[in-house]
């Protein structure tokens, strides 16, 4: 009944295994240059490598919650500031209008 579908699944699984084997063969040398391996090297050498020091990787995370007339956004921002000590929580960058639209400042 499902012999055709089973054969297709077995063939797809076999091709997937072969594809992943080829990927590992091609990209294993790149794994030695991954960011984790580079972090250990950077700590030892203390010389910055500019391609791996992008500001998005080193910046502090931020959460922006829109403020509203009822004060729900401000209350949630205050609650998040207490819970997430290392994250910047802001409720002044956006406003939710009475119609439900968000306006950025």
Textual characterization of the structure:
- The strands form two sheets. The protein has a two-stranded parallel ribbon with strand order 1-2.
- It folds into two domains: 3-49; 60-98, no CATH class.
- It starts with a helix and ends with a strand.
- Helix 4 (72-83) links the parallel strand 1 and strand 2 (88-90).
- With 105 residues, the protein is mostly helical.
- Helix content is 53%, strand content 11%.
Strand content: 5-15%
Q: Please mark out the parts with pLDDT under 50 across 5 or more consecutive residues, or reply none.
A: none
Count of helical regions? 4
Order of helices and strands: HHHEHEEE
- Strand line-up in the sheet with most strands: 1-2
Give the overall shape. Answer: flat
Distance between the termini: 62 Å
- How much helix is in the residues? 40-55%
């Amino acid at each position: 009944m499902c012999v055709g579908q089973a054969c297709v699944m077995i063939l797809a699984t076999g091709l997937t295994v072969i594809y992943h084997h080829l990927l590992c063969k091609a990209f294993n040398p790149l794994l030695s240059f991954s960011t984790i391996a580079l972090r250990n090297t950077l700590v030892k050498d203390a010389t910055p490598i500019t391609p791996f020091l992008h500001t998005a990787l080193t910046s502090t995370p931020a959460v922006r919650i829109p403020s509203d007339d009822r004060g729900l956004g401000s209350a949630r921002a205050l609650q998040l500031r207490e819970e997430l000590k290392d994250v910047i929580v802001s409720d002044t960058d956006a406003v939710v209008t009475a119609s439900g639209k968000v306006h950025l400042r």
